[in-house]
Design goal:
Mean pLDDT: 87
Shape: elongated
Strand order of the largest sheet: 1-7-6-5-4-3-2
Structural class: alpha+beta
CATH architecture: 2-Layer Sandwich
Largest sheet: 7 strands, antiparallel
CATH superfamily: START domain
Number of helices: 4
Distance between the termini: 69 Å
Length: about 170
């Protein structure tokens, strides 16, 4: 009978720890990733802002569907389909679109999280471009709160995607 008591206490502690981690996790995470490209600013800008190219350089993206043929302006919407067992769809809208200067989007995976990104483009010279990406992730449910602990992983994923993009355009 004592063993059942200890097992019960053990499971209560495990459950309390799990829920404690969830409720103590931040609901929002902000980070920045910078990258230099050996390509002119117009080539980097057009490659990064064309949603139909995302499957070629963003890990996990299977498909992108646009609402209209003309996607590259403020207010236009598109959907990003992620692969895997628990495949997800992110609904995105373009918030800012200033050619060769700034590109910003707001994305939502329903009941999971919001992904806001603002990418600033800087021409270092005629053949080199620097981008600065600012990302804010906001949890929309308790099941996604644990992802807020993974700031370094999110940064590394964005940086790895930029490495793939570099190999496409440089």
């Amino acid at each position: 009978m004592k063993i059942l008591k200890y097992i019960g206490v053990f499971f209560v502690l495990i459950a309390a720890s799990y829920f404690g981690l969830i409720f103590m996790a931040p609901s929002e995470l902000t980070f920045q990733v910078n990258e230099d490209f050996d390509a002119p600013i117009d080539k980097v800008f057009s490659s990064m802002t064309d949603p139909l190219l995302l499957p070629q350089w963003v890990d996990g993206v299977d498909d992108v569907r646009t609402v209209s043929d003309h996607v590259l302006e403020v207010g236009e919407k598109f959907q990003v389909f992620y692969q895997g067992e628990n495949s997800m769809v992110m609904d995105k809208v373009i918030l800012l679109f200033q050619p060769n200067e700034i590109y910003s989007t707001h994305g939502v995976i329903k009941d999971f999280f919001e992904w806001n990104e603002r990418i600033q483009f800087q021409s270092l010279d005629t053949v080199h471009t620097r981008i600065s990406t600012f990302v804010t992730i906001k949890s929309l449910s308790n099941k996604s709160r644990l992802f807020m602990y993974a700031e370094e992983t999110h940064k590394q994923n964005v940086a790895n995607n930029y490495i793939k993009l570099k190999s496409l355009i440089e």
